[in-house]
């Protein structure tokens, strides 16, 4: 029992990092992890030996994160006008054409690239970031995200679009611009 | 009807989240065939997805 408790506790830093990336709110992330650890300790029997401890805990944490996101989305104000219109002229052409990123695949082997990516993620507006993380980090389908966040598919696509546009600009500046 | 670059960016993004219609795929292909800016954009979006996938399973699996 004590051994189980210390193993669960040992996963706390990993879970906290996972939750922080998704929620971008330290307090909310700590709450989600705390609830996960409590649920895990209360439900030790549910663990058995079928999965790795981390996978099992992450599964519980995902539900806690979704609860937290859902709660926040009920409280958050609606997003404003689309700032990415400014990238195009009145006929919808690029004002400044995107240039190819140089050797992007090599970046995937570099730790510093992922630090830049996380920096860019941290600059996204909260709701945009949450939607994007549910899609690209948790790997949920759009209809699941719509259901969890109680938003329309169209709204979901708009948020994902904004996230990708913002990340593209941020990575161009913070990483590929060097 | 030719898509504008602005429309292409939306369709490329949505193409990562839903199945595009036949007409959307054809019009996208025509546009990308003549527009380097949007082709670069499309490649960047594909890269972003790969980078996020790697970030997601970057943590060592015990």
Summarize the entry for a quick read.
The complex is a heterodimer of chains A (178) and B (62). Chain A contains ten helices and no strands.
List the helices and strands and how they pair.
The complex is a heterodimer of chains A (178) and B (62).
Chain A: H1 2-10, H2 12-23, H3 26-42, H4 44-47, H5 53-75, H6 104-107, H7 111-122, H8 126-136, H9 142-149, H10 153-176
Helix pairs in contact in A: 2-3, 2-5, 3-5, 7-10, 8-10, 9-10
Chain B: H1 5-14, H2 22-34, H3 36-56
Helix pairs in contact in B: 1-3, 2-3
Would you mind describing this structure in some detail?
The complex is a heterodimer of chains A (178) and B (62). Chain A is built from ten helices and no strands. With 178 residues, chain A is mainly alpha-helical. Chain A folds into two domains: 2-75, Orthogonal Bundle (Rna Polymerase Sigma Factor, Chain: A), CATH 1.10.1740; 83-176, Winged helix-like DNA-binding domain superfamily/Winged helix DNA-binding domain (Arc Repressor Mutant, subunit A, Orthogonal Bundle). The radius of gyration of chain A is 19 Å and the shape is globular. Chain B has 62 residues and is an all-alpha fold. Chain B has one domain. Helices cover 71% and strands 0% of the residues of chain B. Chain B has helices at residues 5-14, 22-34, 36-56. The N and C termini of chain B lie far apart (53 Å). The chains are: A mainly alpha (178), B mainly alpha (62).
The percentage of residues in β strands of chain A lies in under 5%
CATH class of the largest domain in chain A: Mainly Alpha
Series of H and E elements of chain B: HHH
Unreliable stretches of chain A: none
Helix content bin of chain A: 55-70%
Biggest sheet descriptor of chain A: none
Which features does this protein show?
heterodimer; A: 178 residues; mainly alpha; Rna Polymerase Sigma Factor, Chain: A; Arc Repressor Mutant, subunit A; 2 domains; 10 helices; 70% helix; B: 62 residues; 3 helices
């Amino acid at each position: 029992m004590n051994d189980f408790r210390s193993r669960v506790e040992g996963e706390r830093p990993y879970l906290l990092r996972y939750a922080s990336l998704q929620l971008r709110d330290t307090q909310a992330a700590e709450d989600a992890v705390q609830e996960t650890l409590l649920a895990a300790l209360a439900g030790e029997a549910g663990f058995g030996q079928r999965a790795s401890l981390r996978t099992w805990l992450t599964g519980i944490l995902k539900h806690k994160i979704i609860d937290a996101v859902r709660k926040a989305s009920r409280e958050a104000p609606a997003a404003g006008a689309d700032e990415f219109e400014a990238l195009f002229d009145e006929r919808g052409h690029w004002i400044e054409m995107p240039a190819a990123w140089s050797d992007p695949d090599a970046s995937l082997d570099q730790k510093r690239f992922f630090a830049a990516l996380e920096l860019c993620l941290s600059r996204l507006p909260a709701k945009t970031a949450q939607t994007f993380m549910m899609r690209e980090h948790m790997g949920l389908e759009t209809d699941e995200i719509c259901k969890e966040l109680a938003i329309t598919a169209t709204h979901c696509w708009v948020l994902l679009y904004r996230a990708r546009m913002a990340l593209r600009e941020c990575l161009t500046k913070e990483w590929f611009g060097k | 009807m030719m898509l504008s670059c602005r429309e292409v960016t939306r369709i490329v993004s949505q193409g990562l989240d839903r199945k595009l219609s036949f007409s959307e795929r054809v019009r996208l292909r025509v546009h990308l065939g003549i527009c380097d800016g949007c082709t670069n954009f499309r490649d960047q979006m594909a890269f972003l997805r790969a980078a996020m996938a790697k970030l997601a399973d970057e943590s060592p699996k015990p």
